[in-house]
Write a structure and sequence with these properties.
single chain; alpha+beta; Pnp Oxidase, Chain A; 4-stranded antiparallel sheet; 3 helices; Nitroreductase/quinone reductase family protein; oxidoreductase activity
Length: about 90
Amino acid sequence: MSPRARRARGPPRPQAEPEPAWWLNLQAHPETTVAPVDGRRRVRGRAADGEERDRLWARWRELDKNLDAYAARRPGRTAVVILEPSPGAAAE
């Protein structure tokens, strides 16, 4: 899968407690529809982990110098969310 086909979502309000409702809903029902500027599409959401999470977190840290400070306010690890095209999904 092309890296452009996947979309990463910034940390869900890294300072927030509890987890935001959209993230809880996505965990319970990972198949959903997104509507970026290039067209609506079906995706499957998941949390990044391991090297993938570390790489994406480092990238967001470059964009937001306060990211680690915000994340330190949370009792647990902040999720980095990946939205991948559902099998057979195409832009609408």
